[in-house]
Target: UDP-glycosyltransferase 76E2
Amino acid sequence: MGEQAQKTLRLVLVPFPYQGHISPMLQLGAALHSKGFSITIAHTICNSPNSQNHPNFSFLRLSDGLSDTDIESRGLAANLLAINDNCKESFQWSLEQLIMEDRKTISCVISDELMYFAEDVANNLKILSIILRTTSAITSLARSFLLKLVEGGHVPLQGFASDELVARLPLLRFKDLPCPLTENFKSFAVIVARAYNKRTCSAIIWNTINCLEQSTLDQIQKESQVRIFAIGPMHKITPSISSSLIKEDRSCISWLDKQPHNSVVYVSISGSIASLYEKEVTEMAWGLANSKQAFLWAIRPGSIRGSDWIELLPNGFQDAVGDKGCIVSWAPQKEVLAHPAVGGFWSHCGWNSTLESLAQGVPMICKPCFGDQRVNARYASHVWKVGLELEEVERGEIARVVRRLILCEEGKEIRARAKKLKQKIDVSTRKGGSSYDSLNQLANFILSL
Ligand code: UDP
Model:
């Protein structure tokens, strides 16, 4: 079928309304648009993407029943369950309207794995569905394993702090399992069960790359009834699009321009969700100052508990670091990681941040908070060996790890490995590479449905 025919085919994409999920879904939309499909984004009212940044897409607003404060104040799990309960009716109604009014055929609903209501609606309307998994592939095996433990009544798990290796998950220790932030294993079990069990989709798209996760992807494909398409890193396979929910502060780029190559540690350890205690921030601040290395620190407003932004940074810290430090509220992260001055990324290891770092060949300091970040951190440091693990948020330990990465021979070796991995990732996204081919196969697959 030619491109003309594809233009009459509409794909409805349903992102989960958090930054780490919206970005890959919009990137996927751009990739499939470049293959000739019409793209509609069905989004919640909370955290809605800015439609002006995406003139090629059309948008459907779903009533999510959440107030502005809900999304901030309630936990992720509570929001997720509420969104799935509240949006179903609105989505079904919107699709029915679209089918009546539109001359294009809706060929498929592609929804985030956590927006399972969308798959139910697609089934009701006899539209095929595909899910997008925005985590690493190994995370899904780890979550399934954890779910079995939870279902077997093995919680609370004292062993969750243990260094013991999990037999069936290569190189993962019990303390690397993707546990939720709180001990609320009940909602975790409901969510993971819905995300992984009894899916009726026709295929699964994964924001990962064969060169990172070949054996895990092979294992998942072997056990899966449906096809898997690994087309990551999505930010590399798509024309660049702006998907940030928070305004980026680009002033840090001119500061970076003044720094020597590979000299700056970029610090962003709360991503778009996690938050830090004042005590941790104090240790971070003095650890960075004591390392005597230049740093760019992205501190999301509200991410330090008990303050709006950086009011709780320790007294004297900013004077002590002077021009060696630059603090912004939200960095243009991909641009920062591509900057030659950046010699390392101290990250919470959210999957997008991990992929963005790997794709730029930037070595990492890994300090996960919760969930899949723990798995990603372990893989970055011990499987791909492109990062150092930070065991404890303590000033002495921080200063040591920063200096090991930026100044020592060990850091040079890690950087060299990261650069090699970047080259492999580059190859994957170019013509003939695994992710490039997988995207084409996905487009053909959708056409064949
Ligand atoms: N990000 C950004 N500027 C910042 C911090 C984060 O643009 O100052 C982006 C980052 O590039 C990534 C996303 O926010 O794409 C965070 O997603 P990730 O999966 O790493 O973490 P999460 O927020 O889901 O924990």
Q: What stands out?
A: The pocket of uridine-5'-diphosphate is lined by residues 19-20, 23, 244, 268, 271-273, 298, 330-331, 333-334, 350-353, 356 (CB under 6 Å). The longest strand covers residues 105-112. The longest helix spans residues 76-101.
